[in-house]
User: Fold this.
Amino acid sequence: MSGLHGNHDLGHTIAGWAGTAVAVLGFCVTGAALTQGSSAGIAVGAAVIVAAALVTWVLHLSGWGKPSGPRPVPEQNWRTKDRAAAEGHPGCLGCRLAGRSGARRSAAKGSVPFPAARASEQGEPARSAAPVAVSAVVRGDGGR
Assistant:
């Protein structure tokens, strides 16, 4: 079935599958409780849904998730453990919430600045649209 999508990393991980399974169970419990009119059942279903988020987060932090973006081809199997999880993934909210300081350091090292910032770092003027007077924009004539 993976041939349908070519060589794309669809992000299938143990954390993703486990979290999804627990969340589906929580939604089923909530739905069944809703049809029965059971407030306690709705609360249990909601707790299971919250547990799904926690299960996914814990598995992600333990290396069974994946960082954002595509992974190298040898690491795309869903059963492959992510060895960079201990340091934290760049730009990952879950890693930042866990206090993984490597995420901030890695993001600063590996990030690519916006073109305007890159131009100013190289001493070149930043390219922008031609300046238009504010009054011309307000009038709607485009500065003519």
User: Anything to note?
Assistant: The chain has six helices and no strands. The helical segments are 14-36, 39-64, 93-97, 102-110, 115-121, 134-139. The mean pLDDT is 74.
